Fold:
Amino acid sequence: MTHSDLTTINALKITLLIMSLFISSHVYASTTEIKPFIKESFKQIQQAHKNQPTIITFWSQSCAFCMKELALFGKTLKNYQNVELVSISTDPFLDNEVVNQILSSKNLQHVQKWVFADDYVERLYFNVDPTWRGELPLTYFLDKNNNLHKRLGVIKEAELINWLNKQNIASIK
Structure:
């Protein structure tokens, strides 16, 4: 092999390495992007999902009932398409790795993720609902007609499936 052949081969290797790093970084970023939940984020989420069935769930890592509900969402929603789940951790500034680990363990690694980004969480509670004092789990169902339904406490599987069916979301079982 000549010197120019070796140079060409090395250039190709470097190009392939750069391309694979670029692709893997984009794949990783898309599955782990976590947005800061601040004042007006709830309105922003509602606007972004206008007229499309969306479940918005507020949870905390220390809430056993929240973990139960997240597991239910992971189990049930894998059989339904055309419904979005927006996950919002109420733990201020919760580490991205912890959020991703919790949601991945519930089969929810690809949902939209938000984390409270205000040390004064009561301000965010009030911005979501002036009567909310931080009780969890808290879930909002945004239906296909843009109506918002509040549900405090763990939702039952039958209740979730009933709502999904009312949205004309077919199961892919």
Summary: DSSP finds six helices and six strands in the chain. The first strand starts at residue 34 and ends at 37. Confidence is low (pLDDT under 50) at residues 24-30.
